[in-house]
């Protein structure tokens, strides 16, 4: 049960409306998570700005994979559903790659290194080892790329925490529980 209600269009604060309207136009509907998050124009617009900037980081398969890995660790079923859908339809990842990503892995060696590193970042709260950092660098990621991975982990964690706290009504197809994959 949702702990905060998704806003109806007439309830959206004026400072959140342009951002929410842009998402609605882009996606084709207003996800409940966004209609709930829009209650705080400061937090909502800050997140939207970060999302927009980080949509240029790395490639879509790696970004979606990181979103899946982080959401799995954080236990965010809403985000797992969203990222599973976007990974399938936007990143064109097959089902087996989506499952691997949820485990912090990928069949592509370079992407695998990024996902393993992202999972280490979230599991250790950023206290990664020198070996972890060397592995992602050895896979071909620059320090700037590593910073982008860390920023993606933080951004996905923000939405995971938001959804875990407020539990918006699910409006994306549910995914298989983690214990079953």
Automatic annotation (TrEMBL):
Q: Does the keyword Oxidoreductase apply?
A: yes
InterPro entries in UniProt:
AhpD-like, AhpD_core, CMD-like
Which Pfam families does the record cross-reference, listed alphabetically? CMD
Q: What class of enzyme is it?
A: oxidoreductase
- Signal peptide positions are none
Which GO-annotated molecular functions does the record name?
peroxiredoxin activity
What is the protein name for this chain? Answer: Alkyl hydroperoxide reductase AhpD
| Entry EC no(s) | 1.11.1.15
Keyword Oxidoreductase assigned: yes
Origin organism lineage: Bacteria, Pseudomonadati, Pseudomonadota, Betaproteobacteria, Burkholderiales
Keywords for the protein's UniProt record, in alphabetical order: Oxidoreductase, Peroxidase, Plasmid
Domain (Carboxymuconolactone decarboxylase-like) ranges: 44-117
């Amino acid at each position: 049960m949702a702990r905060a209600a998704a806003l109806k269009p007439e309830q959206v604060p004026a400072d959140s409306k342009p951002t929410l309207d842009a998402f609605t136009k882009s996606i084709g509907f207003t996800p409940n998570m966004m209609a709930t998050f829009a209650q705080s124009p400061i937090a909502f617009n800050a997140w939207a700005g970060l999302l927009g900037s980080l949509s240029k980081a790395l490639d879509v398969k790696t970004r979606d994979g990181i979103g899946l890995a982080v959401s799995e660790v954080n236990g965010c079923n809403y985000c797992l559903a969203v990222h599973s859908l976007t990974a399938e339809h936007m990143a064109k990842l097959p089902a087996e790659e989506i499952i691997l990503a949820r485990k912090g892995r990928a069949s592509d060696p370079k992407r695998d290194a990024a996902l393993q590193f992202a999972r280490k970042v979230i599991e250790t709260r950023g206290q990664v080892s020198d070996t972890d950092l060397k592995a992602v660098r050895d896979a071909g990621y620059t320090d700037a790329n590593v910073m982008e991975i860390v920023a993606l982990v933080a951004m996905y964690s923000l939405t995971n925490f938001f959804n875990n706290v407020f539990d918006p009504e699910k409006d994306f197809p549910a995914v298989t529980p983690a214990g079953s994959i």
